[in-house]
Structures are given as structure tokens and as C-alpha cells.
Amino acid sequence: MTKSIPHYVEASNECTLFEQAFKNKLPLLLKGPTGCGKTRFVSHMAARLGLPLYTVSCHDDLTAADLTGRYLLKGGDTVWTDGPLTRAVREGGICYLDEVVEARKDVTVVLHPLTDDRRVLPLDRTGEELVAPDNFMLVVSYNPGYQNVMKSLKPSTRQRFLGVEFDFPELELETKIIAGESGLEEDRVRPLVRLANKLREMKGQDLEEGVSTRLIVYCASLIKAGMTVDAAVLHAMIEPLTDEPDVKEGLLEVVRVTF
Ligand code: ADP
């Protein structure tokens, strides 16, 4: 039985670029705000190419050993256990490191030899040096919008990757995506996307991040399930954005003038 391919609506030529990167054994960097489709894109491409996908959500405690593996105690013995990156290199597949800039600095040390033409993963602890097979691909993502200088990728790391920039799709395309995801008719989705675009204009002034495509999908799904538009907008598109009463009032004002 073939596994179904996660639905992904292409915005530009990113699917072809991904295929080219895979064929040419080049690593890929996806940049863009949270909730705009990066993870969905990678799972879609992995399924299309018939490759296993190892996804790691990076966080500030994530170390190189979390990716490569470690010795674990098992029934009195210490047994080496591969981490997700090592498994992808040993068995072939895509390793996707989501929000890679969050990870500890030692992670870049294991990524460098994998992202140049050697394509090797040295495992100091086991003494192995694994050569990545042709069907191994490394994909990383990050959100440049956070503007955290401490947490941007160093040129020596980023210049090892091909890059694709993701952004929220234009009105009609985003409407189609959300209608497809939620089952709500396009004519009822469109005003939600218009509202989201208005709220996105406030990014940088009062908001760190604009409304993601993911949140509009939540909102449309709630409406489809019978919730009133006002309540769905409040819970899916306002509350998740801010804790500040003044900012929330400003957002609600945008809702009042837009709807
Ligand atoms: P990111 O990884 O950028 O944070 P996700 O890939 O998790 O975001 O996207 C969030 C949700 O938005 C997805 O689960 C999907 O419902 C929807 N989505 C966003 N962009 C697309 C797209 N181009 N095609 C299909 N669904 C999309």
C-alpha cells in the first residue's frame, strides 16, 4: 500500500528546487515565519520522493549528541543508540531540523562535514565515520523574523545550503489552501485571510509575529464546526498573538473595522 502524500499547495517553484537539491546531493535551508507551510512542504516532498523523514524540532537545550546518538544503559549493558541524524545517514532519508538556530552551538560542528562535498558524519564516541548515501538529504529551517542576532546562522554555516524563502501566500492562494485544509467554503475563508493580512501589517509595531496560515486554518475549522465567526476569530486569531491588553484591544479594533 502506498502512503498518501501530505497535501501541499506550491507557491512558486519550490518543489522543483527541492528535487534538484536532492538529486545534486545539496542541503537546503528554508527561511520564513512560523506556520507558513515549511514543515508541510518537507513532509510532502519526502513522501513524493519516497524517502523516510526524520524531523527534529530544535530547542535551546538540543545538543549534537541528541542528533547523533549516545550510549544508553539497557539491562546492565551500555548500548550505542543512534540519534535521528545518524539514523538518516545510515539508512538514507531526509533529516529535517526545524528552527535549527535554537540548537546549541555544537550542533553546527556535526553539520559542517555533512554539508560539504565529503558528506560524512564523524561519530567520535563510536569511532565511526559514516559516509552519507546518495538518498540522504539535510533540510533545515529557521525564522529570520525573530531578529535575534545571537540566534542567526553564521555565514560559515548558512553558505553551505541552498536557500528558499517562504512567506504567507497571496490572498487567493492562501484562501484556497485554507479552504482545502478546513473544508470551509472559499467565500467564507476569504474575509478571514483579508483580516489576517490587516493584522499582519501590525507586525513589528505591536506584534512580534503576524497571524500564521496555521491559525487561519484553526479559525476556519472552528467556523466549519459551527462556532460563530466572532468567537473563532477571537480564539484563533487574536488570543494566540498577544498577552498585552492594549495590543489585544488594537487587534480587536482592526477586526471591527475589517468585518
Ligand atoms: P511551519 O513549518 O512553517 O511552521 P507548517 O508547515 O506546520 O508551518 O504549516 C502550518 C499549517 O498551515 C499546515 O499544517 C497546513 O494546514 C497549512 N499550510 C500552510 N501552507 C500550506 C501549503 N502551501 N499547502 C497546504 N497547507 C499549508
From TrEMBL:
Protein's recorded name: CbbQ/NirQ/NorQ/GpvN family protein
SUPFAM superfamilies: P-loop containing nucleoside triphosphate hydrolases
Keywords linked to the UniProt accession: ATP-binding, Nucleotide-binding
Domain of life the protein comes from: Bacteria
Domain CbbQ/NirQ/NorQ C-terminal per the UniProt entry, residue ranges: 174-256
Keyword Membrane: no
GO molecular function per UniProt: ATP binding; ATP hydrolysis activity
InterPro entries: ATPase_dyneun-rel_AAA (IPR011704), CbbQ/NirQ/NorQ/GpvN (IPR050764), CbbQ_C (IPR013615), P-loop_NTPase (IPR027417)
Family designation: Belongs to the CbbQ/NirQ/NorQ/GpvN family.
Keyword Nucleotide-binding: yes
UniProt domain ATPase dynein-related AAA: residue ranges: 27-161
